[in-house]
UniProtKB/TrEMBL annotation:
PROSITE patterns: GNAT. This is Alanine acetyltransferase. Residues 1-144 form the N-acetyltransferase domain. It comes from the Bacteria. Pfam families: Acetyltransf_3.
Amino acid sequence: MNDPAWLQFIGDFGVRTLEDARVYLLESTLAMYARMGFGLYLTELKESAVPIGVCGLIKRDFLEDVDIGFAFLPDFRKQGYAYEAAAAILAYGKETFGLKRIVAITSLDNQASGRLLEKLGLHFERVISFPPDGEDVKLFAAHL
């Protein structure tokens, strides 16, 4: 969560210590599992179980639809892992939760994530305002 790309494209959640991480997991990730039955999942290499990132479903209060999110450690970007994980999450959302539409948001300058979303079948819809500070983000969507 403190990788420069995470900070640039996703945001600064103020996680600097183990206690910060514990609070973030309890109030965000684990709370999402409890409320929705899904959240961000650890992504790891099959052969070695080395953690390489996260990918999953998120329900944000300001979006009508569930969105897909992903982030990978620098050494594991641009190798197809994000596509593989995100494609599996899209299928999981459809098959397990009956989702008919999934959205995604990216910062305006995050072309890499935009290209991946389009490769996955999502299409740019419009620019929306991201609470609480009103930052403009791109909204992508796919009907499943």
